[in-house]
Amino acid sequence: MNDNIKKRIEELVNILNKASHEYYVLDSPSITDQEYDDYYSELLRLEEKYPELKREDSPTLRVGGEAISKFEKVTHKTPMLSFDDIFNEDEIRAFDERIRKTIKYPTYTVEPKMDGLSGSLIYEKGLLVRVATRGNGVVGENITLNAKTIKSIPLRLTKPIDIEVRGEIYMSKASFAKANMERELNNEPLFANPRNAAAGSVRQLDSKITAKRGLDFMAYFIPNPRDYGIKEQSESLDYLKELGFVTNYKLNTTASSVDEIIKDIEKLASIRKDLPYEIDGVVLKVNNLDDEEELGYTARVPRWGIAYKFPAEEVLTTLKEIKFTVGRTGKITPNAIFSPVHVAGSLISKATLHNEDYCIAKDVRVGDTISIRKAGDVIPEVVRVLKERRNGTEKEFTMIENCPICNTRLVRKEKEADYYCPNNLCPARKIENIIHFAEREAMNIDGMGESVIEDLYNEGFITDVTDIYDINKYEDELMNLEGYGTKKISNLKAAIERSKSNSLERLLYGLGIRNVGAKTAKVLARYYKTLDNLMTASTEELTGINDIGSIIATSIKEYFNDINNKNIINKLKEYGVNTTYINNTEYEEKEEFKNKTFVLTGSLINITRDEASKIIEDLGGKVSSSVSSKTSVVIVGDSPGSKYDKALSLNIPIWNEEEFLEKINN
Questions:
Q1: CB of 549 within 8 A of CB of 509?
Q2: Average predicted confidence (pLDDT) for the chain
Q3: pLDDT at 241
Q4: pLDDT band per the 50, 70, 90 thresholds, residue 398
């Protein structure tokens, strides 16, 4: 009996995996959706009844399994290096000229640059055993359970071989639209773009959530192609398709001159909007693998390839309204509200206009046709106004005189571009202050997002940040609010309780002191150790701290001299909120780093710039973006820029990456 069951399970797995290959790779299904569903249901029933017979390449694994507590770190067999970016035709020609100094007659592959995240897939005897993210190129995260839910990743190859395959995990435009529609219905923040959505989806601790996100995978690279008799990059793609992978073979081309490359890029750019997924450029690779080997690598990038990035997409729309919003400091921001348009993968309908001076300089008017793009493919911005399309009905910009929320007269300080609402009791300011206090970089109160805070404020449960810690008295009323069940309230209370134990720098940042960002808050917390010490510090003492200038010092004194702010701090103390600095890092402060200013330049190999910056701060140092006479040390990676030259001219000590790692590990 068991032999018959085992045989039937194997038949069903083979039928379903063959059907997936035909659907995703060949685009030529041989069975109907209904037949697939029937076979799948039969397999599911048999596996539930005979779990010991379940195969490791069963398609039922794609629904996700048990949640995990964290992602394990994995070291890549060979580093996952990225390509240098270029942005125009001149840079393409320069790349070609550089290649021709070594390779006389090169040919190139021209491949669409998928806008997702890189993944490394390891197969043993044809069976998928591990999937990892790129991470910092050397060390990534094990996302195997989540990756197995992606239907375009083969669980078993068509050949029983050992191989590593690299490609792009991405979210199609349709899946992105569906995911954001669901998030909107659930009052969750929308994903900014498909790339962010894909990155967030593969890092879910519960693979069942990943399974619902509709991710895809496109294979594009084999790290050791010669082991499989491959001589050209274009052959790699054919071989990947043969193994059962989805590739971009229909869009990939080869070119032997810059003119041909430009022509291929223009063709891809022209069909970009019609593709079912986002691409943000083109990857150029030397096609011949012997030529690739001769060209080799720098310490951080291949010399045989380059990534051409498309210019930021611009879309025309009509400016419907200029709406003024109030920030937590009282800052008034004019915002362009326009007819919704799709830009770089998402639907947008507003963009900041920054301040009065910006609006006047742009001469932006309600009714104008405006050009919109996403700066860095993330932040919407108004690029230009098409004044030639005006018909005389447009309304000129006029700066408001009173706060749009509380009607208080606005003020604009000398030498500042922004207007402010000076009313500390302005409802908009109070809500924004509470939102800021609860956010991740500040007190990190999980579950207390913008919509929850607005609910609590509108119901009268909270009026300032201190009321967060007295929310228990409204538990019965909360239960009566739509969408607030026992579990949600319990989780919120637990997150609030946890926030009481935060280190001082989180509290300082959360208080919203003007000109005090997260980095400055950390500097102050490390220096003064307690909130009381900081509150009694003089302006002269504050300005004596590196990176604390007179503007920041004045803002700090003004904040702590305000009676309302003093009352808030006293209440927070009464509720048990920690007001001391907690050094909870794995590094102890070192004299070589303490109170010194570091600048990073060039690309690091064994550690990311963000990781290096955090370690420097943990050791008591500060990280600056520019070199000056106040700089203590410049840490130099591969291909350093002008900061390195300036450090040499100023006689500033220079460490390479190896020296830096040695000093932090000693």
A1: no
A2: 88
A3: 93
A4: very high
Query: How far is the C-alpha of 109 from the C-alpha of 100, rounded, in Å?
Result: 15
DSSP lists the bridge partners of residue 168 as 118, 218
Residue 385, beta-bridge partner list:
370
Q: How many other β-carbons are positioned within 10 Å of the β-carbon of residue 95? A: 20
Range of the domain at 50: 2-63
Highest mean pLDDT among 204-213, 287-296, 372-381: 287-296
- For residue range 571-618, list pLDDT tens digits in order: 999 999 999 998 766 667 788 888 889 999 887 777 777 788 888 888
Give residue-wise pLDDT tens across range 103-122. 999 999 999 999 899 999 99
654-656, strands of its sheet edge to edge:
622-624, 597-601, 633-636, 654-656
Torsion 505-508-512-517 (CA) sign: negative
Domain presence at residue 77? no
DSSP letter for each residue of 252-304: -EEESSHHHHHHHHHHHHHHGGGSSS-EEEEEEEESBHHHHHHH-B-SSSBTT
Among 247, 276, 309, identify where a domain stops: 309
Query: Directed axis angle between helix 450-458 and helix 427-438, to 10°?
Result: 140
With respect to residue 71, please indicate whether it lies within any of the assigned structural domains.
Answer: no
157 found inside a domain: yes
Highest mean pLDDT among 18-22, 206-210, 219-223, 372-376 belongs to 219-223
- pLDDT at position 195 is 86
Element (H, E) at 320: strand 315-326
532-552, pLDDT tens digit by residue?
999 999 999 998 887 788 999
Residue partners of 307: CB distance under 8 A and separation at least 6: 82, 83, 84, 85, 86, 113, 281, 282, 283, 284
Distance CA(127)–CA(413), nearest Å, equals: 66
User: Given 285, 309, 333, which residue is the final one in a domain?
Assistant: 309
CA dist 251 and 279 (Å) reads 12
In a domain, 119, yes or no: yes
Would you tell me how many other CB atoms lie within 10 Å of the CB of residue 129? Answer: 12
Which of residues 231 and 614 earns the better pLDDT score?
A: 231
| Torsion angles phi and psi, residue 564, rounded to 5 | -65, -40
Q: Which two tokens stand for residue 417?
A: 């571009």
For the domain that residue 118 is a member of, what is the CATH number? 3.30.470.30
Tell me how far apart the alpha carbons of residues 281 and 113 are, in angstroms, rounded to a whole number: 5
The residue type found at 2 is N
Catalytic residues: 113
pLDDT higher than 70, residue 384:
yes
Q: What is the CATH number of the domain that holds 623?
A: 3.40.50.10190
Token readout for 451 is: 């919509």
Residues 6 or more apart whose CB falls under 8 angstroms from that of 551 comprise 515
